[in-house]
Structures are given as C-alpha cells and as structure tokens.
Write a structure and sequence with these properties.
By secondary structure, the chain is an alpha/beta fold. It contains 17 helices and 12 strands. The strands form 3 sheets. Strands 1-7-6-5-4-2-3 form a 7-stranded mixed beta sheet, sandwiched between helices. Strand 11 and strand 12 form a beta hairpin.
Length: 476
C-alpha cells in the first residue's frame, strides 16, 4: 500500500491561517511578514508522526539488514561514535573561533592525521577534503602543482580498467588526457603493462588497490619502481582500504599519494549524499603542495597554518567535515592497530566465504582468492532470460539490499558483492541462501524473477520511460 503524501493527508491552505499568532511576544517587522499563506499541508501532530514513522519502516538501512554493496564498504558503524560527534562542546564550535580556544578540536584532527599517517606509512596527511572524489581531485591537483614546480608539466595519466570509476573522471577534470591500461588475464596489472604506456608525457598512474575486481595488485611494488624510473607519481585510490588495514602500508610499496574515505573505512555513515569525509596522505616531496589551512603543531600549540608558498590552496573550509573526522578518530582510538588488523582479516574471510559458496551458482570470471569483495557475473542466468538487473530486483523482494551491478565494466553482467567485516556468518548464510534460491528460480521459472520486485513499497518501474521522461518533482 502506498503511503500518501502529507499534501494528500492535510489541507494545503488551511482556512484558519494567520501570519503571526495573536499572542506572540516577539513582533516581526512588517516587511518580513508573509502576504499569503505558505503552501504547506495542515495536519495534526499524530498524522505527521505516523506519516514519517510509516516512511521510516519502508526505508532500507544498515541497521535493518545486510548491505552487500561492493566497493562502497557499507558496514555497520558504532553508535557511540555518533554520540561523541553530537557532543555540543564539539558540535557547537564556531569555525572562526581563534585557535587557542579550540585546542581540543584541533588535536582531534591532528591526532587523526598522525594515526592515518602511521597506518599507511606516509609523511603527511590532511583531512580537509570532504569526500573520496574530492580527495582524488586534491591529489591530482598536487600532481599538477609538483610538475609545474619542476617546470616539466605533463599531459597524460594512466588509469587501469580495474580502477574506481571516479579515477578517469578526476584525471579528466584536472585537465589530463586519460589513457586506459588493460589488466592482464588474471585481473591485475603487470610492470610490463605500465612500462609500455608510461612515457615522458605521463604524469601519474592512478591505481586502485585492491582493485574493483576485489583482487590485490601483487605487482604494485615493481610497478611503482617503473613509474618512478620514468619520473612519474603513483596515486593509489584508498576506497578499498578496508582490506589492507594493519597489513599493508602503501607508502612502503612506493605509492606517493593515497586518499582516505573516512565515511567508508573509519566509522561514518555512507550514502545519501553525505556526510562525507576524505583526506589524503603524501610522501615528503609532495608535502609542501598540500592544501591550506593545515592542522599542525607549532611551539607546543595546535594551529591552522595558512602559510605555504607551494600549496594548491584550500579545497574546503576550515577543518573539513569535522564531525566525520571526530567519528573516525573515535574509531581509530577504539580499534587500535590490532583491532584494525582484525577488521581487514574478517572482511577478507567474509568475502571469500561468499565467493566459495556462490561460485557454482554464479559465474566467477576471476576464480581466485579475493580481498574485500567478490565480483560475480549473471551470465549463467542470462541464458534463461534473467539479467543482472532482474537478479538485483529479486534480492530486494527477499529482504536484502542489492549489491553493486554492472561494475566493473570489464565483467559482463557484473554482480559486485562486499559483505564487510561486520556481518555474522548467520547473516551471510541467509544472503547466500537467497542468492541460491534466485539462481534456482531463474532456471526453473524465470518469469517470476522478471516480475520482481512485488513486495517493495514501489513495484517494478518502467525504466525506459523513467530515462526518457525524468520527472521527480511533486506539483501540488
């Protein structure tokens, strides 16, 4: 049953409307008073509360069940970290308060930067960017600034076909020509692949590790040497860092820049457009180019430092998204290095458990030990007229969120499944059972799958019409 809109529940223009309550003690200047009533529904409190409670029961969220959403690390996050970020002593700080009055908040940012630098091996970290994509752009701007300083501006950036989808977009937005590097038959890069395409006009290699096939780039150390011999920079997309925590320090492999997704890896809610938190780590040679202001310790005090001749300048205001940084800081303190190592271990085990349990039901193009996620193909089901999109809709009917589909592009009918470390074996077994049942139904009664979803608040949509006649605005 469809939940009616508030406009349908109440009157849009109540008859008893008055612009200012007669008993008001604060007189609003006449020029600010409404000339006409606002176009909002008139409903009682109980109707409003019931309406939003009903909507909340329709919403899917990580508190409700598993998000097998590959490449996005949709994991459960401790509520205690939310409480810390909501503390008025943090949440109510005005961004223009002088440094000496916000030493505690600056210390949170400074310590979080220090922890992340230690975790990944980089010399300097900034948490100013507020998303992974903005972090990427910040990193590539640093690449451009570095070559400008050297007086040797280059034109191209290499991006593997297994990279995150934002990587080529970032390189293009920064003004570079994107050159695609094809991965080998086993789904990873080889030094030879890079050596053949990295020339004197190439500024950097953007590599996602583990890549979007969920595979570890085991040749990365040798690849970094190839790039450095050519005078280039290695940028590593850290969106899949959940698989490496406490186990691999990318800087020790030769990576020059990495970006963090605080809102994926370190205890902040992901999805819905925010709140996001990013950050980048760089080697010493690139530290002067980091955005300002930087949170630094000087003469025993934390400061927002704006003086840097080579800085690319600010990419966001003040501290960045402080509330998200604070949640990540709490997560890092609580977990410690041993806890983070346990995170990556369980993430890898869970992903491989799903991989092994489903490899007889769904095609597995790269049937080898994966890291944080396993990428299947719906090609087996397609033979019966059921596409990956239909499988995703069938998953919704069975009480789970759908995984990422049709990405990475190099896998036909891709199903990217990432269970994360926070899911129990019992939950994974329930999901696996659902996936096996969908496979069986696809073979025996494909028409049933093609009708899905039938149990969700909104049934199967006409996607062709939605693409041609996009209309998402309510007109009362």
């Amino acid at each position: 049953m469809r939940e009616p809109l508030l406009f349908e529940i109440g009157q849009s223009k109540p008859e008893n409307y008055t612009s200012v309550p007669s008993d008001t003690k604060t007189q609003i200047p006449k020029k600010y008073l409404r000339k006409t009533p606002p176009n909002i529904p008139s409903t009682g409190e109980s109707s409003v509360v019931r309406h939003f409670v009903n909507l909340s029961t329709m919403n899917y969220h990580v508190d409700k069940n598993l998000y097998p959403l590959g490449s996005c690390t949709m994991k459960y996050n401790p509520k205690i970290n939310e409480d810390a970020a909501a503390n008025p002593r943090f949440a109510s700080i005005h961004p223009l308060v002088p440094d000496q009055y916000v030493q505690g908040s600056l210390e949170v940012v400074g310590d979080a930067q220090k922890f992340l630098a230690e975790l990944t091996g980089f010399d300097s970290v900034t948490l100013q960017p507020v998303a992974g994509a903005q972090s990427e752009l910040t990193g590539i701007f640093i690449v451009r600034a570095y070559f400008s300083k050297m007086g040797k501006q280059r034109k191209k950036i290499l991006v593997p076909d297994t990279a995150h989808g934002t990587n080529p977009a970032t390189a293009a937005l920064a003004g570079y020509q994107v050159v695609t590097v094809k991965s080998s038959n086993d789904g990873i890069l080889t030094p030879k692949d890079i050596l053949e395409q990295f020339d004197e006009e190439t500024a950097a290699l953007m590599v996602t590790n583990p890549n979007t096939l969920g595979l570890y780039e085991k040749n990365l150390r040798e690849i970094c040497s190839v790039v450095h011999d050519k005078g280039g920079i290695v940028y590593m997309d850290g969106a899949n860092l959940n698989a490496l925590l406490g186990r691999v320090k990318p800087a020790e492999l030769g990576v020059d820049i990495i970006h963090f997704n605080l809102h994926k890896t370190f205890s902040s809610p992901h999805g819905g457009g925010g709140p996001g938190g990013g950050g980048i780590g760089v080697v010493k040679a690139l530290s002067p180019f980091l955005p300002t202001p930087r949170v630094l310790m000087k003469n025993g005090k934390w400061v927002l430092e704006n003086e840097s001749e080579d800085s690319i300048g600010p990419v966001h205001f003040f501290y960045g998204n402080f509330g998200v940084i604070l949640k990540a800081y709490c997560y890092l303190l609580r977990m410690g290095i041993d806890g983070l190592k346990d995170v990556s271990e369980k993430a890898i085990i869970n992903a491989n458990y799903v991989r092994v349990c489903l490899r007889d039901n769904y095609k597995l193009p790269y049937d080898k030990t994966c890291m944080h996620e396993a990428v299947f193909s719906g090609d087996f089901q397609k033979k019966h007229g059921v596409k990956t999109l239909d499988i995703a809709k069938a998953i919704l009917d069975r009480g789970f969120h759908a995984p990422t589909i049709y990405f990475p592009l190099i896998v036909s009918e891709a199903l990217m499944i990432e269970p994360t470390e926070t899911e129990s074996k019992k939950t994974l077994d329930s999901f696996i059972e659902v996936m096996k049942e969908i496979d069986s139904t696809s073979r025996e009664n494909p028409d049933e799958i093609l009708q899905c979803p039938v149990k969700t608040p909104v049934k199967r949509l006409d996607e062709t019409m939605a693409a041609k006649e996009l209309n998402v605005r309510y007109k009362g």
